[in-house]
Write a structure and sequence with these properties.
Layout (H helix, E strand, L loop, with lengths): L1 H74 L5 H9 L4 H19 L5 E8 L5 E3 L7 E6 L4 E6 L7 E2 L16 E6 L9 E7 L1 H9 L7 E6 L5 E5 L9 E5 L4 E6 L2 E6 L11 E2 L3 H52 L14 H11 L2 H6 L15 E2 L2 E2 L5
Antiparallel strand pairs: 1-2, 1-7, 3-4, 4-5, 6-7, 8-9, 8-13, 10-11, 11-12, 14-15
Length: 395
């Protein structure tokens, strides 16, 4: 019976420790499952946002391509006022002039469908006055030719516009982030010849804000503009809002460097098949990797917190189970030293409680005779107890 009680007490302690271990494993598993689920959900969200971004950028690029195509078509019919007056006065070229006018009316009708996207359009002849058409206020500008280099330098005097020098791209700036975006192209530009004309397109600020508000701006989206000669003009990103001082394009590896004072950013771009403006979106892998590292830190923190909490609860509540068991075993040890007056504390209704209650109800002689502490062949069951001390007669 003694061995049975000892074995049951040890089993109870082991069961308590195993329960604590399984509790830690369960809590850690649940934490890892929750965090990993959040990682997968986050990655799927980024993927969906990236696909949505790509769709929005493609749509915006298509609209811009249509607008610029119509503007290029219109540039073929630019006639300076002096030339037009000469043609009409001399009675020559009236049919051609009317045909050109009809063509321009048709193209303007096409451009009218893009009214939500653009603020104003300017068509200019370098040998005559500029013709401001389209929507919005006319843009005031001063043109100067760099005859010795054969390049066109354009200085915008209106507020919020930027100074731009062809093929050199210095002092490129925007007054505010996406406040005004000016697209300028030189028509029929050749290094040895004077450009025939200039097309200027100002995108509507509200259209830009609406387009960009639908894009997931997690440092993964950029709006990049290139010239027909595959030169980078500028690239706008959420993280870069200052004045861009220099732009260096590297055509071989499709990278370019943006310098803002002492800050330098290295970005990647893709060149469109056509010689037009391109819209560009970076891969979202950087964002996914950053989220994974953040979630990994969360997993480590949650694991440490789980272990700490499990240890605390084990120390706090497991003692309510292990302490009575320890008390029973300690009382039994004292009784083995012939302290038969010891009563083992018990408050259990299971097998251990039944054994302990039976143990407490036994007399000293019964404890000795039933072999609780000494082997039956080492004492005489007829011995008696004097003052709580067992007197054993050996054979």
């Amino acid at each position: 019976m003694r061995k049975r009680l000892y074995k049951r007490l040890l089993d109870a302690k082991l069961e308590t420790k195993l329960c604590a271990v399984f509790l830690v494993i369960f809590l850690m598993s649940m934490t890892c499952i929750l965090v990993l689920s959040s990682i997968l959900i986050r990655a799927e969200s980024i993927k969906n946002s990236s696909q949505k971004t790509e769709q929005i950028l493609k749509e915006a690029k298509r609209n811009l391509d249509y607008i610029i195509l119509d503007m290029e078509n219109m540039s073929r019919f630019i006639i300076s006022e002096s030339t037009a007056q000469t043609m009409l006065l001399e009675g020559k070229g009236t049919a051609a002039y009317e045909a050109n006018s009809n063509q321009m009316r048709e193209i303007l009708a096409n451009l009218a469908s893009y009214k939500p996207y653009i603020e104003s359009i300017g068509l200019y002849n370098l040998d005559g006055d500029g013709i401001s058409i389209g929507f919005g206020p006319a843009l005031t500008r001063d043109y100067r030719m760099l005859e010795n280099q054969g390049w066109l330098q354009e200085v915008f005097e209106a507020k919020g516009m930027y100074c731009w020098e062809w093929a050199k791209f210095e002092d490129l700036s925007l007054e505010k982030n996406f406040e005004r975006l000016i697209l300028t192209r030189v028509v029929n530009r050749q290094m040895s010849q004077k450009p025939a004309g200039i097309l200027t397109l100002t995108l509507n600020q509200s259209y830009l804000e609406n387009m960009l508000s639908q894009i997931y701006l997690g440092n993964q989206t950029a709006l990049t503009l290139t010239t027909p000669d595959k030169e980078i003009i500028f690239s706008t990103e959420e993280e870069r809002t200052g004045v861009v001082s220099e732009v260096f394009a590297h055509k071989n590896d499709n990278t370019f460097i943006i310098r803002e004072g002492l800050t330098e950013s290295l970005l990647h771009y893709e060149i469109a098949d056509d010689a037009g403006w391109i819209l560009y979106s970076k891969t979202p892998m950087k964002e996914i990797n950053r989220d994974f590292l953040i979630n990994l830190q969360v997993i480590i923190f949650a694991a440490v917190l789980t272990i700490a909490l499990a240890f605390y609860f084990y120390k706090r509540f497991a003692k309510t189970i292990t302490k009575p068991i320890s008390d029973v075993m300690h009382a039994m040890r004292r009784m083995e030293c012939a302290n038969f007056k010891e009563q083992i504390p018990v408050d259990r209704e299971d097998e251990i409680g039944t054994l302990v209650k039976s143990f407490n109800s036994m007399t000293s002689q019964e404890l000795i005779c039933k072999g609780w502490f000494l082997p039956p062949n080492t004492y005489d069951c007829g011995s008696f107890v004097v003052n709580g001390t067992a007197v054993v007669g050996k054979e």
